[in-house]
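Exercise 7.
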Amino acid sequence: MRDSASQNKPDKLLHTSFFGVSQVEQVLFKGYLRVLLSLDVTLVWLVERSNKLDLIVINEALCNTPSVQKLRFEHPSCPVLFIRRRKSGKGSFQDNKIVLPLNEAADLSALHNWLQSNLKVLHKDVTMTEIDALSS
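Solution. The predicted structure, written as tokens, is:
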């Protein structure tokens, strides 16, 4: 439950788009985000071609396809995570590549640190007005 001070504060909106990511991988990743991010972050899921993106999550197998290259060209400043899933065993996180499932605390911590470092909307000193100005 939020206290009255946080209820008056506008939520931070994290606009995320998936490209070629399976439903299972999306559910896993969304769960990680919900656990790793504070409650004042509202997760917004968008179609790939939206103009307002804070994060793009791409199936790693598609990273060099023309459509992904075009998407990255259209959003050059938008952080990108590449994702894939192992059928068995443990996953990992390194740089901007996720192999699901993430079982190790170190991988979850690394993902959390990457999100905090790369997503402007999560920076505590950036207001929603500044974020809107950056994206226009």
